[in-house]
Amino acid sequence: MSTNSYEILEETVEYISKFEEIEFYHLMQLDIILDSDDGSIPPRLRRLIENFSRQTSSERDGLIQSLKQMIRVIDRLPPSLKARMVEASNRPDASDELIPTFALERGERDRILELCERMRRIVFSASEFDQPHRVRLLNRIAAIEAETHKPEGMFDVVRGGIDDLGETLGKFGVNIKPLSDRMNEVVSIARRGTKAYDQLPEPEEVKQLPPPEDDSEEA
To answer: In angstroms, rounded to a whole number, what is the distance separating the alpha carbons of residues 141 and 154?
Structure first.
């Protein structure tokens, strides 16, 4: 008997839930399962998993428990009802349009990936950050890269980079202009690829980051 994507997801969630803290490589395992989905994973579960990269570590732990509970409920359904649920939930849903996504041309995708690599080098070399905040920024950069590789990435994952960076720079009272400039450019490129925001004027994202003082930390 062949194993479908839902069964692999179920086993993986059970495995991940045994860890005290959900790490980024756990999220990558879940992303791989979603990318290879054969249609057996209901979109409600997909959306819950796709939200993980936007959450803090403690919030991810709670989401894993929610995911486990949803899987338990699904497993208790009779096979006929489970099949109907999957069929119904895989139909186009107008509510999906409320979740902003972005699509990129190859040049735009390459530019974002280049900017992410430059940001990663800056974060690694910056002595101002403690390890937890450095890891948080690196995880956010990796999440942005993962969304960039998708045909339609989740814009909120990219947009969250502004919040993570602003919070980190504010906490340590530092101004790293090359880092904030690159994050702003990434968000700007992704924003232009969204249907939700392409007709709206772009906000001044930099207002959410500490004002840069100089260019001395250019990578």
So the answer is: 14
Q: How far is CA 79 from the centre of its chain?
A: 32
* pTM given for the model: 0.53
Site of tokens 């919070």: 167
Report the alpha-carbon angle 143-167-201, nearest 5: 75
Q: Are 164 and 209 in contact (CB under 8 A)?
A: no
pLDDT digits (tens, 9 = 90+) for 140-150: 898 899 889 88
Report the residue count for the chain.
219
Read off φ and ψ for residue 217, nearest 5 degrees: -105, 25
**DSSP 8-state code for residue 92:** -
Instruction: Supply the DSSP symbol for 2.
Output: -
**CA 5, CA 200: separation in Å to the nearest integer?**
38
Rounded CA separation 27/40 (Å):
19
Structure-token pair, residue 48: 């819950």
